[in-house]
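input
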Amino acid sequence: MTAHPPADADAVLAGLDPEQRAVATALRGPVCVLAGAGTGKTRAITHRVAYGVHSGVYAPQRVLAVTFTTRAAGEMRGRLRGLGVGGVQARTFHSAALRQLGYFWPKVVGGQLPRLVPSKAGLVAEAAGRSRLRPGPAGIRDLAAEIEWAKVTRTAPDDYALAAGRAGRTAPADLDHAQVAQVYAGYEETKRARGVLDFEDVLLLTVAILEERADVADAVRAQYRHLVVDEYQDVNPLQQALLELWLGGRDDVCVVGDAAQTIYGFTGASPAYLLGFPQRYPGATVVRLVRDYRSTPQVVALANGLLRGARGRVSQAGVELVAQRPAGPAPTFAAHPDEPAEAAATAARVRTLLAAGTPASEIAVLYRINAQSEVFEEALADAGIPYLLRGAERFFERPEVREAVLLLRGAARAGGSVAADADLAPPGTLADDVRAVLASAGWQPQPPSGAGATRDRWESLNALVGLAEQLTADRPDAGLSQLVAELDERIAAQHAPTVEGVTLASLHAAKGLEWDAVFLVGLVDGTLPISYAETPEQVEEERRLLYVGVTRAREHLSLSWAAARAPGGRAVRRPSRFLDGLRPADDEPAAGRAGSADRRRGRRGRAGGVLPTVCSGCGAPLVSGADRTRGRCADCPPAYDEAVFERLRAWRLERARTDSVPAYVVFTDATLEAIAARRPASLGELAEINGVGPAKLQRYGAEVLEQLAGA
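output
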């Protein structure tokens, strides 16, 4: 008869829901936990370890818990300490392998473990140079990432070209697979000559020692008898090989993961190990955590709907979440005429949340690629809202942007001679000049194929080209000096990163985090899914990336997109296909109800950042994009005073010329329309209008009131 666990062991189970309790009490493996977002997986597995220790089944020093980030490992150790358990090894794969390698290296190889290089970049650049290749900094980063993929899939340089072709990988840095293999081989030779290791070598050498030395393998297995692996959907073949060697044929392992959050396929990670766990271990205990404690029912419903539209086996394997929190606000869907309008509306909503008491650190703006951050950085800075970038440099601190700004300054001082040296067509407009200057930095009209740093670099440079195009449209006579002046103003307006600030991050960088309010922006086809996601599997991984973004939100969730990149541009973009069937506009009754509600509350139109579906004057449906942007059909006069609007436009143009900035930087047309409609009589009333942030209120507020008084 099994002895009853001591009281402190029973106390560990207090407060767990039935599924979490099932995980915590399944002390013998194999155990597979399919844990949906926000379902308390870390709570479940730490309580499992604590229950095992307090009940006498586990010795803490015999437990190895493997995570994917040092932050997650630290959180796990902290929770275990709070449960009265110390001595458990909670480490990343690399940290655990490095500890073992450092211990056994003197015995197996002799001498000290070689030095670990923190970055591949220098050695990759040297290897590329010896092959007479000059890929540039972005290309070097992409080559390093490709070498990492080859090593985690245990692909040798001689086998790389064939393996990469079979995997459908695009060779980085405008090279072919044979050239990448040549750089890869040169990198390995350089590394051996220097007597150094990279991070993948740590895993490869640990695997090799465990495979070749039975005594070492036995010692490791005797030390670690109980294994836990978090985020198991993200393991790669090399990590899986190491895990199997740690186990040595045993099955005392608990894996935890969510197939619906598999977003690192491009790095070699595979959810196949998670999905195939029950087949590899017949009779395994499988527990599904489905109770979502993070998000409101409204957010959970959207996340579930997103997965129901999935077509791939991996996405469909995600759990159907069951919300546990009280009801909250419905997620909002907002279309905008252009990216600056989307950014301004986002900043306005952030300001509303801040005024209502939501801390800035509990708000996040998430996007697909880092190059999307600039317009939101500018909008938040203009609104006086502090922010910080996570997982990327600030836009104007990115190496390619700093280089481009220096080139543009030089060209402005030389009167365009830098552009003339580019062996391109003679410069014409400002936009032509900028394209010529940035061509010398690697910009080209068409984006490079594939993903990675090369694509990110192009996106950054192309954002500067887009800025020049906007300035050219607003001021056809503008030159490089006016563009440089605007760049200086934008750089000066940026806020230094602070702890208490709105988070700007890519969807990949947001994995594992959560906020009270999340804004998912730039949701257009070509960006999400990204244009180079061509296979069904790649498209489904993009869907899962959006799912990760949705499930970061606890209460407030906003999804938005812009029909055009720049003000006045062609409205050719369509909302992400992943939103089909989820947006209220996709459901006719819902759209009708929304239209009625909009009429009741006096539709704000573009000033509020949401395009109306019915005319605010006569209530007729709005069909054309121009009518929806205006908020009224062509037969109805505008809701604002046209004379006041034109007076404000004339003032804005004069002020923009004085400040040497594009007109929209002063105020967008949407904001001027709102001002003309509401006719504020004080700075306080003016501040209530979307698009009028603290910085603009201070700079332009008095002049706007003067224009209104004069009108």
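quick obs: The chain is about 50% helix and 10% strand.
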